[in-house]
Design a protein that fits this description.
mainly alpha; Methane Monooxygenase Hydroxylase, Chain G, domain 1; homodimer; elongated; 0% strand
Chain lengths: 215, 215
């Protein structure tokens, strides 16, 4: 019975890592769709989000099954409960990629991103991808040190987010209100995405050590 | 032992209801702080958020204790796992009230809200309060029908949110970019707050019936 339990736990880890891959790909495609005004790509992010949701449901079902049949205690209990929370955060990251894609779709064939903002958005997209890639490695390797690296990347994201506001508020902003609203929301989506990625990594630390970090 | 378990469950329900009260009060004060540029009130929202976080931690500790000692299965297991998720949503609602209060603090002694937007913000604040009050009743009474009412209030919130964007984008908007950014974020915070309130109510339905609604 305990072997079945550990097989199930391994499968669970695999599903969580797969979720990081899906939401990384979703945000990567959403960023490109936004910068290239690529409607089919935006649509693909929106339509494929159901794969993320389904994986999240599979994880929940598997955890409920585990808890009902194996009645884990102590460390095992902590592991499965934390995995539930991780799946919920990853699912939310998929939603945030969809929000970015929907702005790209709404403005198509125009671009929601004025030329002078493109570099910042590209960089936020790259940091988002780097963060979630590291989150995936954290889950796979259960490496608590890697989780600390994520917090630095998250600080970088926060700096870019503040730079975005400064650009919107600068004298030279000449695009008016609508793009300012779009960029405000887009900035918030990347920042939240990064936040969730860090939370998932912190949950890995909690799983491994039993101590909460950085909250 | 089962009596101790049900006492603990009742205490858990009480704590969740208390969380709805705290985050209702937080958003109510945040809305007033925003509309009246009331700095001490804004500060009170920000400093008292730790009470919400502490209650959330108490709930988590109590649930982990319950699971370790009582090893609940089936309906009982569903109940405690769902309660964990509800506490996390309520904790997030407290954060969103803090975000609103921080915008009030940042713009003080000015107001972040131009005159023609005040009514909309006031109404969004009132709907937010109504929603979370109903969420509290849902938790207390386990009334699944009440949960459906919440979805109507949430639709109302979404309409107000769209109206906010229309006002920002109208020809008559003369306040420039900074207030537009503030209002975009504020609108998003109320909308997310409402969303979490609905999710908590949906979780009550899930606890009672075992079926997910509205997701």
């Amino acid at each position: 019975m305990r072997d079945a339990y550990h097989d199930e736990l391994r499968a669970l880890t695999g599903r969580l890592v797969e979720m990081t891959r899906l939401v990384r790909s979703a945000m990567s495609r959403a960023t490109t769709a936004l910068l290239d005004s690529d409607l089919p790509l935006a649509e693909s992010v929106i339509s494929r989000d159901k794969d993320v949701n389904q994986l999240c449901e599979e994880i929940e079902t598997s955890i409920f099954g585990l808890m009902a049949t194996q009645q884990p205690v102590a460390v095992d209990l902590r592991t499965v409960i934390t995995a539930l929370r991780m799946a919920a955060d990853l699912e939310r990251m998929g939603d945030l990629a969809v929000h970015v894609a929907k702005i790209a779709r709404m403005r198509h064939p125009d671009s929601a991103v004025p030329a002078e903002i493109r570099d910042s958005i590209l960089e936020m997209g790259q940091i988002a991808e780097r963060l979630v890639t590291k989150t995936g490695s954290c889950i796979l390797t259960q490496n608590a040190e890697l989780a600390q690296e994520l917090e630095q990347d998250d600080d970088h994201m926060d700096r870019l987010h503040r730079r975005l506001f400064r650009m919107l508020l600068s004298e030279s902003w000449e695009h008016g209100i609508e793009p300012a609203i779009d960029i405000t929301l887009i900035g918030r989506y990347y920042e939240r995405y990064a936040d969730h990625a860090v939370r998932v990594a912190q949950d890995v630390v909690y799983m491994v050590t039993g101590s909460r970090v950085g909250e």
